Amino acid sequence: MTHDLFKSFAEAMNFTLKEIVISELKEGIFYAKIVCGDDLREVELDSRPSDAIAIGLRFNVPIYTYEAILSEAGIVSSALDEEDEEDEEVIRETIRSRGSFLEQLRDMPNDELQRMLDEALRKEEYEKAAKIRDELGRRN
After folding, report:
1. Is residue 111 part of a domain?
2. What CATH number should be reported for the domain holding residue 36?
3. Which long-range contacts (CB under 8 A, 24 or more apart) does 57-61 make?
4. CA angle, corner 31, sides to 129 and 29, nearest 5?
5. What mean pLDDT is reported for the chain?
6. Structural domain boundaries enclosing 14
7. Could you read off the pLDDT of 103-123 as tens digits, one per residue?
8. Which of 80, 101, 119, 124 has its CA 20 to 30 A from that of 130?
9. Does residue 55 lie in a domain region?
């Protein structure tokens, strides 16, 4: 895939990826930057968010955005509404379901996890891919 080519190219040129930033939201379209560099300089590359996230997962770097972008997009963290009992139950259920998926990952062999990671990235299921990546990283 192109994302794998990007990683190979960056490593061959001694560039390291530092972070991914979902940097803007204009007219309903998100924009991203890939922050990378070498020992001499740091470069910000413009990217589609889907590509930036896929590349960030391959390099295991943090992915950031700004609170203003989340607000403009209408994304609200349910963790902020903990006083509401209904929201608390949603949070508890989310934690339970995450735990069971993570437990399933812990029981899988590395080659199966790698296959699942590749499939999740192909389908652009980035949250799932991040969990699988974290489990692979925990083992190394």
Report:
1. no
2. 3.10.690.10
3. 57/121, 57/126, 57/129, 57/130, 57/133, 58/3, 58/4, 58/6, 58/7, 58/121, 59/7, 59/10, 59/16, 59/17, 60/133, 60/137, 61/17, 61/18, 61/19, 61/20
4. 100
5. 80
6. 1-75
7. 677 777 888 888 888 988 888
8. 80
9. yes
Domain membership of residue 106 (yes or no) is no
In a domain, 118, yes or no: no
Rg (CA), the chain: 17
Element (H, E) at 36: strand 29-37
Q: How far apart are the first and last CA of the chain?
A: 24
* Lowest-confidence pick of 13-22, 99-108, 129-138: 99-108
pLDDT digits (tens, 9 = 90+) for 18-48: 999 999 988 888 999 999 998 889 999 999 9
Number of structural domains (the chain) is 1
